[in-house]
Amino acid sequence: MSRWDFVGRTDELNRLLSAVGGPEGRGLLFSGSAGVGKSRLLREGVATLPTDRYAIWSVSASATTAALPFGGLVQVLPGEQPPGLSPAGVLRWAVDVLQEEAAGRPIVLAIDDAHLLDPPSAALVHLIARAENATVIGTLRNGEQIPLPIRALWTDDLVELVELGPLGPADTTGLLAAILDAPVDAGSAERLFRLSAGNPLLLRELVLAAVGGGELTRTYGIWQWTGRLELAPSLTDLIDVRIGQLTPGVRSVVELVAFGEPLGLQLLEQAVDPADVETAEERGLISLVRDDRRLDVRLAHPLYGEVMRRQCPVSRTRRLQATLAELLEQVGKRRRDDLLRVAVWRLDSGTAQDPALLLDAAAQAFGRYDVPLATRLARAALEADGGFDAAELLATILMFGDRPDEAIRVLDAVAGEIRSDGRRSRWLTVRGMVSYWGLSHESTVEEIAARAEELTDPTDRARMRAFEAIMRLHRMDTPAALRLAQAVLDRPASSVAARELARCTIAHLHAAQGRYRRSTTAIARVQAEAARWRGDMPYLQLAMELARGTRLTLSGDLAGIDAIVADEFADLAGAGDFRLGTGYLAILRAYAARLRGQSDEALKTSLDACAVLATSRVYAGLAHAERAQAAALRGDPAHAAEAMAEADRTHSPGMAVLYPWLEQARSAVYAAGGDLAGATKHLCALADRLREDGLAGHEVLVLFDLVRLDQAAAPVGPTCTDGGRRTVAQRLADLSERVDGALPPLLARYARAAVEDSPAELLAVADDFAARDLVVFAVEAAALALHRLGRRRAASTAAARDRLAALLGRCDQISTPALRLLQPALTDREWEVARLAADGATSPAIADRLYLSTRTVENHLQRVYSKLGVAGRTELRAALRSMPGHDGGNSG
């Protein structure tokens, strides 16, 4: 593993450099906990300073040199000092030596771990800091005794003291990607961030341990952590040093908190001496956090718990867990998660004897989308003779844990216990769900329909019909899906869960049809009933998110996408390893990033989704299709084609409802590879199919993709009575009156402006797109306007170029057919001449640089001006700036 790159800390680094070169002349000391990155920040700052301008001395104080006079500055001072000097004389002599060696340059004295300086060295540092041409920078560790001369540096206003906090989530993710030479999936990065608490040193040890133990694996170029961790001896030793020696009483406090956090203070003090709790808090081992009206106790650092739990003997661990369960049972399970905590403690301590407790806890864990914990508890409930109910829940959880084969075996093992319609309907729906989505058996739909007829109870039958409806939606049998779902809603005997599952089917279908207002209303109803269906069908959330995500993506509501990927479900799904949920939300994030022109984020996030859904039969194809779109946007046809092939391989036939997204991606792959005719033909056929299926919401976007290919005037759809066919622009205009929202009329305006050859209207449309954060569409509208203006040699071309350049500045690397219209047929030599001229080089300078004659350079420039439609170097500079591939890293 290579040396860790320096990531983040930009503001802190700039602050350090300003302290050295700023007009105030004040130094800077960073304080912080061990491993937070103080020393690395200091080294990076010192390495940035030019040695020809500054006389720089770097010092690393240590406990070894702290007992020696001037031991801390032994790397700076001469080996021998003049004899007979008083202590004050020695200090003046040392300052004179440094000034002499500086030879008139400003002095920079950098001291790492300044709290370990011996007294004479500390006094000398203070004296140097008082010199007009000297600056002291350095680091201090929190909680250490600091020599008085060093403390006086900031009290005398000679330096600024700045607390250096831990890395944030974004910087931690960047650091992980830098050291592993590839991105880390969002869930793994979040868990590693939480466990390290943003401490780079602890993060490094965690990664080393995970890599060494084979617990970090790479899928589709994305690193994923299994969550298992074998603590390396170096990491354990590091934590042991921080924890230090503990008395038996304080150890009991820390151990109980390690196994039980967050633990109510009152509950903890019933098991231990309150004085030991105070001692643990004073030593920084635990912290008290107020949660509503309760004061909770937590460990000061997550890794303390890891080490304490690993080092605790098994017998003691079991006793502590049983003690915690008894304590909470005695005071009563008052909070929502108390039942879950007691069940886990009972299970881990070997004292779990009540299958009902384990089953209730498993349901609660699954309701929080904690798939691993729910699986463990449900399996324990089944093994404790939990019977049919435990088997049903375990099979459901296994389905969402991508283990369908095991789920079928669990269900078949309890088939003999079905003695009522109620159990039969639940068994059939769970088995059908596993068979259809988990094993991709399309015949399951007919089996569900036939078996529903055998049931006599209307409530049980409604449950079966709700599942049949959503299965039929997913295989694109939409008329039957709508009829069945509406029948469930109309039936008074339907349970809440069955009704809301049916409503999700209708909401999804309305979204695909462009009836966004109806879809929004239906989704809001489902969300309002969440407390009533979550205990029965927590996975219904996924159906709701698919319906909501379809509406948001088709309507171009990027702010809405931002909201749902940041809500509680996203946090719970990520923390609980609910991969279908996190994978689908990652697809939405990638889609929003792509439309904003953030191609780096779009590609990284879509790869993240592919890795998370690698074992899924549900959304894997959609994830690869979005990856193909991101690669196509970046102008990478090989990657786009590979991703599309993987989308075809992993797409499940039972998810036919997703076909519009996959086929749109296929057309983008054609276009990225230069086959615009193939892309156009494919989109026209797709638009016809969507029209026949009644999916107007999807059809609008497909037609707009044709407009983006400059095919707004192309014929589409069936032949009319007059023998002609509607154009893409005309069909979009028709749909803009039927499909809800502000986006369809805007797309229709774009198409009309393209057909009418109106650059002014295209630029106005670009502004409206930009206001909606649809930056890629804005860029393409501005590019098309500029292309049309360029053909006319219009006077407003320069202003259009500036607007396009500003929009491109909001994007990463992007390349689309609309942008490639602006790429003139310049030879390589003409490009070289054009770029040098745009950067201000004179013709003779260009001639010398390229080994040409000045006359040849002038001839090249005249051809460039003619091809670009510009007059002079000022316009040339603006023209190149507005082209992908010039400033800003955008490539065409």
Could you characterize what this model shows?
- The radius of gyration is 34 Å and the shape is flat.
- It is built from 46 helices and twelve strands.
- 63% of the residues lie in helices and 7% in strands.
- The chain has 892 residues and is an alpha/beta fold.
Could you name the key traits of this structure?
892 residues; alpha/beta; Rossmann fold; five-stranded parallel beta sheet; three-stranded antiparallel beta sheet; 12 strands; 63% helix; 7% strand; disordered C terminus; LuxR family transcriptional regulator; P-loop_NTPase; DNA binding
Strand content: 5-15%
Q: Helical segment tally?
A: 46
Architecture per CATH nomenclature, i.e. the level-2 architecture of the domain at 10-163: 3-Layer(aba) Sandwich
| Rg, nearest Å | 34 Å
The 3D shape can be described as: flat
CATH superfamily assignment of the domain at 10-163? P-loop containing nucleotide triphosphate hydrolases
Major β-sheet, in short? 5 strands, parallel
For the termini, the CA-CA separation is 35 Å
Strand order of the largest sheet: 2-3-4-1-5
CATH fold category name of the domain at 10-163: Rossmann fold
Number of strands: 12
Secondary-structure content class: alpha/beta
Tell me which oligomeric state these chains represent: single chain
Give the overall pLDDT as a whole number. 87
Would you state the CATH class of the domain at 10-163? Alpha Beta
Fraction of residues in H or I helices = 55-70%
Low-pLDDT residue intervals, each spanning 5 or more residues: 885-892
